[in-house]
Amino acid sequence: MPVHRLERPVTRMYREAGEIPESIGRQQTRNAALIEKITRKLKKTPPRFILTCARGSSGHAATYAKYLFETRTGLAVCSYAPSVASLYAAQTDMREAVFIVISQSGRSPDLLSATRAAKDGGAHVVAVVNDEASPLANLTDHVLPIGAGPELSVAATKSCIGAMSALYHLCAQWRGEHGMLDALAILPETLSKAWSFDWPLALEPLRGARQALILSRGIGLAAAQEAALKLKETCMIQAEGFSAAEVRHGPMTIVGEEFPVMAIATFDAAQQSIDSVSREFLDCGARVLVAGEPVDGALCLPTPRAPDSNLQPLVFLQTFYKFANALSFGRGLDPDQPRNLSKVTETV
Fold this sequence. Notes:
By secondary structure, the protein is α/β, with parallel strands linked by helices. It has helices at 12-18, 20-44, 56-73, 83-86, 109-120, 158-175, 178-185, 187-195, 203-207, 221-235, 271-283, 312-330; strands at 49-53, 76-79, 97-103, 124-129, 142-145, 211-216, 238-243, 260-264, 287-291, 299-301. A five-stranded parallel beta sheet has the order 2-1-3-4-5, with helices on both faces. Strands 7-6-8-9-10 form a five-stranded parallel beta sheet, with helices on both faces. The longest helix has 25 residues, at 20-44. The chain is globular and about 55 Å long. The model has no long low-confidence stretch (mean pLDDT 94).
């Protein structure tokens, strides 16, 4: 039986996504002492809540942080809207909060305004940033480097997974959970395995698609949001990322025969819900693609199991980025030249 594999156009996006396993390994070594310093501060003066601030792919890393920190630390995690500071010039009381701002470039004016407001509001500010010489890095109490190196592709890949990995490391050290730290140590190996996987059978359902739904739940929602954004950016598909619970509140009405739906496994308490809604979409006649957990009637996309279910979104995205690169070319596009986009988006 022939082995089907994707063509692998070597683009900036492809090369940078392929660098992720190595960059995550470097990040862990480099950040270890710094994260110990940050967590000593957090343990000495425990915050009452966490605020995140980010946009785009960094915003998806913030979604990841919400589920990770709420389930592992018991602290409420809320998203701070940058425009509260940048447009409305409103001051927010952030005493007893940790403010985590996430950015690849560290240069967007609205994030800079939000970070200044956080400092003025009394928050302890941590910047998860790739460009350590950026204006954002100079505003914060602590810089937690993503350490991905230069990212030239317009579609962020290694900075997104790198931000998630850095946040996981921070959470693991803060909680003193040795199991999480052990899982983090073997994450680069798992990501390398994920990069070796191909999804050639997924090309046909999406090659001519104009729309798609990407589903997961809980910790997997961030991966669904990020995958949907990448399908927009690189493949010009109007894809939307939804929670498997939230999708029942309206979006199911747009799904009919042959509508592509991708479901992302979490291998945790949310899995039953994801499987259930996948079967509902199959009953609607949708083309359901399931990454990581087989469902009868759906096309299964092989995905390695992460060493901790909280790392599953990172493992999924490692394989997905390669697939999105190939799908872009399959649709006659170039993922390195998305229409109407530039690398650094400076929002006021």
